[in-house]
């Protein structure tokens, strides 16, 4: 099999044998309802009248349609809503196989204490396998799983790390959901060559930062200046910043490891004013009775009031409230990752940089610029939080002018006119390459 099978929805056979729908309309019904189901699943929304109305507004009405199309599609949704009502009344399953598998993996991951992002990743891979397998019996077959993994390797040609991720997800599914003690997925993963990371020059970093909007500029400065992953940046809390020692503490980073990295001088100065603004917002939320921020692990049970304390507040909070997917509580979350990524993409475009730049490339640039400034490879490994030195060595392929010197954040080398400034004392406010702006 060289492609994923067509998803078989719970209503598919009922539509096929329905006497209320003409043969000529059945293909049109199946097309629009299949489109709706795939969109709904991608958005993790339940099948309902409200979800159907949202889909109609966002997708169907997003462009001009023929009158006959709108009439046929509206009739398809009327048929589907009636089917939902009867199926629920009869106690039938209305979720797709993919949804059922995803839910099962999520619940199993919750019991095992896996992080939400890990649960979502595993659930996504196993759900994709279920969509490929097409039926419940095939999903439970380790042989089918081996075939699918081989298909990913040979046909999809996914990267080696992606192959391992899919393999780990299926092993978790068979062990924790299916209850298998031994799982044998006989597949040979194929190594793929490691790609050279995208690295921006110091001038390009300065140009990107200058084009970012206020609410994302300080975050990007800290990501580049401290060499953080995006998730590490967005999950920073007030207590993780030590202005006196100029250190950033990353809690439960990749591999669930803690580490300490450098806090840039320029960002340290800006954070003094920034934290004062945050404190005002923090007191306003407390006065309004807003629930405290989400806490990691079991702290919410051990310290139920800690989320309302200042030190646990997000360093980069969102400007609006949202529903916590873990608890269903409406509270203030941190800056959304996609919001930050989109702002960075627009800044790269505005700066006229002809590279495919992602947020992680600020971390690549941090590492490369430090290596070029003479930071030894072991120190760089500690700052980046790499478990293996081999991972850090990739930057030796893109760094130039290697020599020996001390460690200072590369952000402090940027200057609007010359591209470099002294690594000594803090630069006065009037001499900074861009004005001090606070994220609101």
Describe what is shown at a glance.
This protein has 440 residues and is mostly helical. The chain is 51% helix and 5% strand. It contains 18 helices and five strands.
The shape is: globular
The CATH class label of the largest domain is Mainly Alpha
Note poorly predicted spans: 1-7, 416-440
Taken in chain order, the helices and strands follow as HHHHHHHHHHHHEEEHHEEHHHH
**CATH 2nd-level architecture of the largest domain:** Orthogonal Bundle
SS content category: mainly alpha
| Whole-angstrom Rg | 26 Å
Number of domains: 3
Work out the number of β strands: 5
Which fold name is given in CATH as the topology of the largest domain? hpI Integrase, Chain A
Distance between the termini: 52 Å
Describe the largest sheet.
3 strands, antiparallel
Mean of all residue-level pLDDT scores: 87
**Proportion of strand residues:** 5-15%
- Please report the number of helical segments: 18
CATH homologous superfamily (4th level) name of the largest domain: Intergrase catalytic core
The percent range for helix content is: 40-55%
Strand order of the largest sheet: 1-2-3
Explain what this protein looks like in three dimensions.
The chain is 51% helix and 5% strand. The protein has helices at residues 12-16, 23-42, 49-60, 67-89, 97-111, 116-133, 136-139, 142-156, 160-177, 202-210, 214-226, 230-234, 265-287, 299-302, 337-350, 360-372, 377-384, 389-392; strands spanning 241-242, 247-250, 259-262, 317-323, 330-334. The strands form 2 sheets. It has a 3-stranded antiparallel beta sheet. A two-stranded antiparallel ribbon has the order 4-5. α5 (97-111) packs antiparallel against α6 (116-133), α5 (97-111) crosses α9 (160-177) and α11 (214-226) crosses α16 (360-372). β2 and β3 (259-262) form a beta hairpin. The protein folds into 3 domains: 12-89, no CATH class; 97-177, DNA polymerase, domain 1 (Orthogonal Bundle), CATH 1.10.150.130; 202-431, Intergrase catalytic core (hpI Integrase, Chain A, Orthogonal Bundle). The protein starts with 11 loop residues before the first helix and ends in a 48-residue tail after the last helix. It is globular and about 75 Å long. With 440 residues, it is mostly helical. The chain has 18 helices and 5 strands.
């Amino acid at each position: 099999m060289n492609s994923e099978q067509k998803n078989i929805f719970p209503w598919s056979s009922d539509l096929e044998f329905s006497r209320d729908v003409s043969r000529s309309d059945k293909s049109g019904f199946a097309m629009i309802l299949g489109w709706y189901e795939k969109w709904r699943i991608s958005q993790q929304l339940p099948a309902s009248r409200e979800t159907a109305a949202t889909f109609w507004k966002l997708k169907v009405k997003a462009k001009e349609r023929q009158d006959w199309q709108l009439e046929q599609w509206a009739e398809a949704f009327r048929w589907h809503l009636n089917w939902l009502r009867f199926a629920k009344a009869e106690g039938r399953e209305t979720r797709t196989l993919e949804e059922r598998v995803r839910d099962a993996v999520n619940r199993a991951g919750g019991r095992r204490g896996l992080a939400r992002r890990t649960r979502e990743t595993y659930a996504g891979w196993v759900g994709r396998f279920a969509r490929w397998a097409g039926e419940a019996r095939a999903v439970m077959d380790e042989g089918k799983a081996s075939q699918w993994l081989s298909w990913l390797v040979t046909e999809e040609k996914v990267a080696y790390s992606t192959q391992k991720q899919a393999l780990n997800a299926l092993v978790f599914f068979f062990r924790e959901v299916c209850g298998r003690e031994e799982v044998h997925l006989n597949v040979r993963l194929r190594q793929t060559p490691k790609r050279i990371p995208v690295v921006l020059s110091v001038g390009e970093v300065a140009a990107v930062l200058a084009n970012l909007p206020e609410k994302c500029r300080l975050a990007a400065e800290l990501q580049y200046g401290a060499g953080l992953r995006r998730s590490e940046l967005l999950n920073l809390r007030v207590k993780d910043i030590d202005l006196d020692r100029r250190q950033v503490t990353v809690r439960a980073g990749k591999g669930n490891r803690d580490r300490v990295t450098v806090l840039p001088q320029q960002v340290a100065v800006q954070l003094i004013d920034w934290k004062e603004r945050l404190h005002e917002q923090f007191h306003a939320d407390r006065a309004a009775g807003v629930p405290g921020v989400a806490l990691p692990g079991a702290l919410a049970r051990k310290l139920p009031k800690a989320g309302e304390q200042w030190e646990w507040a997000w360093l980069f909070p969102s400007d609006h409230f949202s529903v916590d997917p873990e608890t269903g509580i409406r509270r203030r979350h941190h800056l959304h990752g996609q919001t930050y990524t989109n702002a960075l993409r627009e800044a790269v475009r505005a700066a006229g940089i002809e590279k495919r730049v992602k947020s992680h490339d600020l971390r690549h640039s941090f590492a490369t610029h430090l290596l070029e400034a003479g930071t030894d490879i072991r120190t760089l490994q500690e700052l980046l939080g790499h478990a293996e030195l081999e991972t850090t060595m990739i930057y030796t392929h893109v760094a130039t002018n290697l020599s020996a010197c001390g460690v200072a954040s590369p952000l402090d080398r940027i200057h609007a006119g010359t591209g470099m400034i002294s690594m000594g004392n803090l630069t006065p406010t009037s001499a900074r390459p861009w004005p001090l702006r606070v994220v609101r």
